[in-house]
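User: I'll paste a sequence; please echo it back and then give the predicted structure.

Assistant: Echoing your sequence first, then the prediction.
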Amino acid sequence: MFASNIGQLAFKGMKRLNRIQSIVFETAYNTNENMLICAPTGAGKTNIAMLTVLHEIRQHFQQGVIKKNEFKIVYVAPMKALAAEMTNYFSKRLEPLGIVVKELTGDMQLSKSEILRTQMLVTTPEKWDVVTRKSVGDVALSQIVKLLILDEVHLLHEDRGPVLESIVARTLRQVESTQSMIRILGLSATLPNYLDVATFLHVNPYIGLFYFDGRFRPVPLGQTFLGIKSANKMQQLNNMDEVCYESVLKQVKAGHQVMVFVHARNATVRTAMSLIERAKNCGQISCFLPPQGPEYGHAEKQVQKSRNKQVRELFPDGFSIHHAGMLRQDRNLVENLFSNGHIKVLVCTATLAWGVNLPAHAVIIKGTQIYAAKRGSFVDLGILDVMQIFGRAGRPQFDKFGEGIIITTHDKLSHYLTLLTQQNPIESQFLESLADNLNAEIALGTVTNVEEAVKWISYTYLYVRMRANPLVYGINHKAYQIDPTLRKHREQLVIEVGRKLDKAKMIRFEERTGYFSSTDLGHILHHVNIGLKVKQCVHQIPSVTMEASIQPITRTVLRVTLSIYPDFTWNDQHIGSNHQSPPNILQNAARIVRALFEIALRKRWPAMTYRLLNLSKVIDKRLWGWASPLRQFSVLPPHILSRLEEKNLTVDKLKDMRKDEIAPGGVENSYGKINILLQTYISRGEMDSFSLISDSAYVAQVHGTVGEPWWIWVEDPTNDHIYHSEYFLTLKKQVISKEAQLLVFTIPIFEPLPSQYYIRAVSDRWLGAEAVCIINFQHLILPERHPPHTGDVTPDMKSIAKADLIVTTPEKWDGVSRSWQNRSYVQQVTILIIDEIHLLVLKVNNAGISDGHTWKMENIIGTVRDSNLKLTLAFGIGMHHAGLHERDRKTVEELFVNCKVQVLIATSTLAWGVNFPAHLVIIKGTEYYDGKTRRYVDFPITDVLQMMGRAGRPQFDDQGKAVILVHDIKKDFYKKFLYEPFPVESSLLGVLSDHLNAEIAGGTITSKQDALDYITWTYFFRRLIMNPSYYNLGDVSHDSVNKFLSHLIEKSLIELELSYCIEIGEDNRSIEPLTYGRIASYYYLKHQTVKMFKDRLKPECSTEELLSILSDAEEYTDLPVRHNEDHMNSELAKCLPMEPNPHSFDSPHTKAHLLLQAHLSRAMLPCPDYDTDTKTVLDQALRVCQAMLDVAANQGWLVTALNITNLVQMVIQGRWLKDSSLLTVPNIEHHHLHLFRKWKPIIKGPHARCRTSIECLPELIHACGGKDHVFSSMVENELHAAKTKQAWNFLSRLPVINVGISVKGSWDDLVEGHNELSVSTLTADKRDDNKWIKLHADQEYVLEVSLQRVHFGFHKGKQESCAVTPRFPKSKDEGWFLILGEVDKRELIALKRVGYVRNQHVASLSFYTPEIPGRYIYTLYFMSDCYLGLDQQYDIYLNVTRANISTQVDTEVSDALTELAVK
C-alpha cells in the first residue's frame, strides 16, 4: 500500500496538477523514458521533476522499504542560488519518505561519506563535471546515479554550455558502456530548435518530448521595449534613471509591486537611492509607502534586527535590495517582506530571477550591459536571462497579466525585439573548450585514441548542430553531402586538438597509431580544472621559480592569471583595467597555484613545493604570508593581531611563551582568546620517529566532520630533492584520542651518508600548521650488502668449489656436467634434487586434456552461484576471491588451468593459496585499505614478489611478464627491491610480550636473566646486530646491546604484569606466572585480551554482555574494515537486535560484534567479503570463549560461567538463546514451529486422546522415537523431500545421554569398604528426608558422573565424534561441560570438560563440603558445547554434619582422588 502512497506523501497539500503536469504525468511517473520539457517560466516544471524523482524512488521500493543505497538522483541547477532553493524545496517534499537531499556546490562541500548517505544531490554543472571527472569507476557514486535532471538546459547556448555537453556526453557513454539505466530529464524555456536538444539528450520525440509555448504561461505577459538616446555616457545613465523612475511610479500608483533588475551588486543600492531621491524631490514618496498596520510593525522590528545597513535604511521608504553578496538570512527576510507586500520596489540582480521563485506584477530590466568576468569586458545581457527575468512578471494567484519592461540603449532595441519575438536556434559553444574536455576524457581513460574521440564527439550537442547547421561551424555544403555523418570533419578536429595538447605537453599523441596517453601535467591540469589557454601561460612559471622567493612567484602567478582577461593591462608597477576587477581572479589564481604546487611536487623540488603550498593557502585565506596565522579566525580584534605581528610571533613561539611574555603591549585581556585559539583551532603535528600526532583539539565547525588533510614529504636539503611524498588525513577520532598515525615509507640512502634528511608535514588548509622532523645519519649503521640472487649469475669456479649447496637451472647444470671428468666439484655431488620433474611429461598430459574433454561453458555457468561470476565467465573472464563459494572457486581454477578462461581477476591471496601461473601477471595497484589505520597502505614487498612469481608457465613459456601499476612516487622503490635482495627483518618486537608470557607460563623463563638469554636465541637478535638502525639501536657495543635488550625485557614484563599475567618477585629478578598468564598462553591469546577479561567480566554477565566482551578481544583488532564498510556496518546494525556505538562503525571490534549478531540472527550480509570475515570471527570465537570460561571458573562465578557455555552453543549453532531450539534444525524457520505444536501422535488405546505439544529438541527426539517417517509426517506439508532429509540427518545424529550420579568419600557410619552413595536424578521434594545425602563438613568428596549414550538406531553407519554444525565453518568434535554450582550463592564449585561420549564414560568432580553444617542444594549442569536445547541439570541435596574426631583424623580419600585434576 505504501508504494501507491509515495506520490501523495510528496505532493501533500496539492489537490490537482496543472495542465502541463497532467499532460506529462503518464510519461514522467510511469516510464523510464528520457524527457525534454520546454515550457515558459512558472509553468510548474519543478513538479514534473518531482514526478520523475518519485518514479525512481518507486523503482527501489521493496517489501515496504526504500532501498536507499541502490540509487542516486542528481539535480543540476544553473546557479548556486537556485541550487540552494531546490535543495530546500526537495528536502521538504521528500522528508516524509526519508530521502536525504543535499546541496553540492562550491559553497557547500560534502565529504565522500556524506555523499554516500545522500539519495539526492543538487549541484551545478561545473561541480558535477568535477565530481564525475574524479569519480569515474567509483561504484559508490557515479555508477549508481539513476536519474539526472538538467534544469535550464537552454544554457547550452551560453558560456557554460560546454560543461553541460560534457556531463551529458559522459553520462550517455557510461550508459552505453556499462549497459546501465540512467534516465535524463531536461527542463528548458521555450526554444525554437527543441528537436535538436531532444536528439542530444537521446529523447524519443514521440514519447518523451513535450513543447509548450507562451499560451501555457500561467499569467499572460505584456512586453515593453524602451530605447535611450544620448550624446554621452553620463547623460545616458541619467536618462535611464529617469525612464526607470517613471515606469516604477506608474506601476506603484496602479497598486502593483515592482522588481527592478540591475547587473551589479553595488548598483542595487545606487539605483534604490536614486529612485528614492527622485520620489522625494517630486513629492511622490508617499506613493511608495506600504500600508501601516499591525503586521507592518512586526516587519519593522525584524528589519531593525538585520545586520545589513542598507536594508534597514531603505525599508521605511518602501524599498529594498537583493543580491548574492548579502547574508542568506537577510535575503530571506527581504523575500518575505516583498511577498507580504511590505516592500513596494525591490532592486535586485539577476540571481533573484534564477534562484528564487518570487513573482511581481511588473519587472523592469534597467540596462542590458553586463560585465563578463571571464572575458574582462562588458557584453550584452543574454536573451535567456531576459526570458528568466520576464518569467517573474505576473503573480498567478493575484494578477490577470504581468508586465515586462526592458530599458536599453536605442541601438540595442531592435536586437532584443528580434530575439524575443523571433527566436534564433541555440547553437553549441563546445568547440571553444574542445581541447580542455578532450584532455579531461584522456586523463580519465575514457578516450584513448582518435577513433574513441570521434565517437565521443558524436554524443555532444555540437555534433547535432554541426549536422543541422554546418555552415555556422565552418563546414561547406559539399563536404556535408559527401560525408553526412561528418566523420572526416570530426576526425580532423580531434587530430588538430590532439596536436595542440601534445605541444602543450598535456598528452602524448602518436599520430601514426592514433593513440593518446595522458602526462603528469595533463593529469594535474585536468584535476584542478585548468584549461589549455591558461596552461600556455603556466609553462613559464617553473623555470623562473626554482630558486625564486615568494614575491616573484606571486608576481608571475598574477601575470598568468590576468592574461586570461584581455581587457587588463600589466606591468610591474601597475595593474590596469578599463572596468572593475574580475571577482574570480582569486579563484583562478588559487587553481593555478595548486597546479604549480602539484607540478613542483611531481618534479620533487622541496623548496618550491613548500612555497607554492603556502602561497595557495595565502590566496585561499586572503592573508599575506607574513600575517599572523591567528587572522584565519575572526576572534581577536585587529589591533591585537597587529601587535602580535609586530613582534613576529609565530604559532610555535606563541605556544612556547608564558602569559607575561605575550601580555605586554595591551593584550592582557586577549590572552585567554589567544590561548584558546592556539590550543583549539590551529592544528599542528608533532612527529616522533615516523609517527604523527596532532596536538590540537578538534572542533567540527573549524576542522570539518571528517578530518584534517596534510601533506608529508621527505626532503634532502643538500641535493634539494624530495624522495617521498603523500597526502593523508588526521581523522577526528585520532585527534581526540591523541592516537599516533603511523606512516611507513621507504627512502634511498646513498654513500657517503648524507648529513640529514627532513620529514616535513604541512597542513593543506591552515597557515602556520606544520611540523618538521630532522633525521640525522651521523650514527646510522647500514647492514652489509649482498649480491642479487635473481637473474643470470655465474660465480667463479673457486666460489662454486667452496659451496656446500648449488642452486642452478637444468640448462646450466647440463652445460656444466657435460665436462664432469675435468671438474672435481661435479664429481663430489652426492645428491641431485630436481624440482618440477613433471615437466618431463607435460606434452603427454596436454594432449590428453585436449583430446579427452569437451567443455560446455553454458552448463558450467549454470552451476555457478555468484551472479557476477556468471556474467564474466560468459565473456571468458574469471574471478577469484575469498568471498566466493568454495565450489565456485574450484570451478574457476579448473577453467583457468585448462585455458577455458583467458583472464583471471583475483585478489592477492591467490598468489599464496594456489599455484596458478600465467604468461602475463598484472598487479593493479600496490595498496590496500587498512581498516585499522583507516587509510590505504602498501602491500608487503613479499606479497608483490609472490604475485610476480606467478608470471611465466614453465611448460609453455620461455619467459614470463609482470606489469606492476604503482603510484609514480613509489616507482623507484619497486624498481630497486624487485631486482635486488630484499632484507627480511624480524617482527618479534610487536608480539614480544606474548611470547615471553608463553615461555614464563611453560616454566622456560623464571627470571629476567632467562628472558634476556631467550632473546639472544631469536632471529631478532641476529638482525639486531646486523642492522641496528632498523631497530633504533644506536651502536652494537656490548653495553649498548645489553642496555637495549634489558629495556625491551623490562618494558614487556611491565606490560604483562599490568595485564595480570605474571608477578615479578620482590628481588626484582624472579618471575612467577599467574592464572591469567597461563590462560592466555594455553589458548594462544594476547595478554591485552585476558586483561580485558579481568576488567570487564563480573559475577553475573548476561549473554549480551558476554557477546560484547567477546567482540572486544584483541584478536579481532586486525579484522579488516575496508573502504566504505563503516556505512555498510551502519546499515547492517539497523537489522540487528543489539545497537552498537553509532560513532564506532569503522572499528574492527564493532564489525566483529555485528557479524556475530548477524550469525546468530541469520541475517543477510551485505557482500561476500562479510561471509569471509564471519568465518574469521567464528574461527577465533571458540578459544576466546573457552578462556572466558576458565576466568569465570577461577573466580567461582556460576551465572557467568553458565552464560558463557550458552554463548558457545549459540556461536556454533548460529541461533540466539531465546530462540526455540527447534530452529537449530536445518530448514526449520519460525513459520514452521506451529507444525510441531499442533502435531498429534497416532496412539491407540486408552491414551489415544492425549496430545503432546512439541516445544524443544528433546521433546521432538522423543516424539520421533528414531523413526524418520514420524518426522516426515510432521513437516511434509511445508518441506519438500530433500529439505526433510537434511533436517532428519541433523536430528538423527543428536546425542541422547543418560546421566547417573554418585558421591564417593568417607563417612563415620558406613560399613568399611563402602564409600559411595548413589544420588537420585529424579525430581525430588525438599521435604522428603530420604533425598538428603549426609556428608561431613569441610571434607573432600568426589562426584562421579556416569554418562551413557542412548542409541535409538536413529543414524545408520559408523558413529562419528564430529558434531553436526551446519552453521559453523569448521568441524567440531562433540563435547560436554560438567558444572557443579550452588545456585543460592551464585557460586561455581567445580568445572570439568568431557569429550565425546561414544558408549559409556565416567567423569569425576572433586569438591569440598562447607565448613558450617546445614542443608545445601548443589546443582549439577550437564551442558553441550555444541548444541542448544540439550542441557540437563540435577539438584543434589546435601545434609552436611560434623564428623567425629577419629573420622576427621583417619579419613583418607581413596587413591583415585589423588589423580584428579580439577580444571
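The mean pLDDT is 81. The longest helix spans residues 1168-1195.
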